[in-house]
Amino acid sequence: MTVTIAYVLSGLLAAAIIAIGARFLVAPRVAAAGYGVQPDLDARHAGAYLSVKGVRDIATGLIVAILMIAGATHLIGWVVLAATVIPIADAIIVLRNDGSPAIAWGVHGATAAVMLVTSALLLLS
Questions:
Q1: Is 36 left (phi over 0), alpha (psi -120 to 50) or beta?
Q2: Which UniProt keywords apply (predicted)?
Q3: Helix (H, G, I), strand (E, B) or coil at 45
Q4: CA gap 89, 18 in Å, rounded
Q5: 47 within some domain
Q6: Residue 11, domain member (yes or no)
Q7: Is residue 117 part of a domain?
Q8: To which H or E segment does residue 104 belong?
Q9: How many domains, in total, are found in the chain?
């Protein structure tokens, strides 16, 4: 039962981050606002940085999905635990750049918490 819950959470995390990454590629203004810091998208190369974030997010989700398909339960747990650095860093970045505290804690902080629970369930199974 615990492994099933952990796999469902892993799948939801993978799907969500892939969708978020895709949004950074196809709707960067909307995605940037959802991130918590609105960059000057009229700056010459601002779109490049948003594309980098989109690709990073898609790749992260795909890594988790591939490990799920392989049935590598403990490895997924370690990868999700290591990847928890990403939303924690995102929350810090938002707060340090006068972004929305509600998004920093409510989106990035909550994501980190779900990831920690998911990794614990996977590693303790």
A1: left
A2: Membrane, Transmembrane, Transmembrane helix
A3: coil
A4: 18
A5: no
A6: yes
A7: yes
A8: none
A9: 1
